[in-house]
Predict the structure.
Amino acid sequence: MPKTILYARVSTTEQTIDHQKVQAETAGFKIDRVIADHGISGVNVPLADRPEGRRLHDILRGGDTLVVRWVDRLGRNYQDVTDTIRQFMREGVVIRTVINNMTFDGATTEPIQQAVRDALIGFMAATAQAQAEATKEAQRAGIAHAKAKEGKDGKTGRYLGRKPSFTRDAYQTVRDMITNGASTSETARATGLSRQAVLRIKADPAAAEAALATWGI
């Protein structure tokens, strides 16, 4: 009997498996099983090299559905993500995303539809890598900003500014959803943040990332 498996990857202490599972169920997915990797970077470690990622390859069979919050859970390297999705499709696995409810499978044999599908896979994988690179740059900027500040936190003597009202996981979800065309209200509901918080992140993601880095979040 075909299974629906959620694959979750969390790389920081602020991210949780439960959060990704609740998001999937809220979006209407009936999850039979959750496979998760903890504390692993999607930039440096391909899916096939992760402990649970390897198990995912062993478990999935033709007709099964693989659910991920977004393609960045599979990885943040363009080549790795595109290769992974295409391999699963060749094996008859359907890949679906929670954000924007995208579906990728190998069912179509029509050349134009295949071309559109493959172009979309490539675009989403490239976006995942670009976001990862932008996040790293913003983290470096936030650390440099914190070091340059004189402050009053009682430990480093630096002024940290206002503490962010969002976690890094919520920040990344906002970035993903806004990038993929979600509305401010939809994003606020999905993350539990206020519209104002979503709008602040949307207006200046680098400043939001810098604030997270400054506070060590």
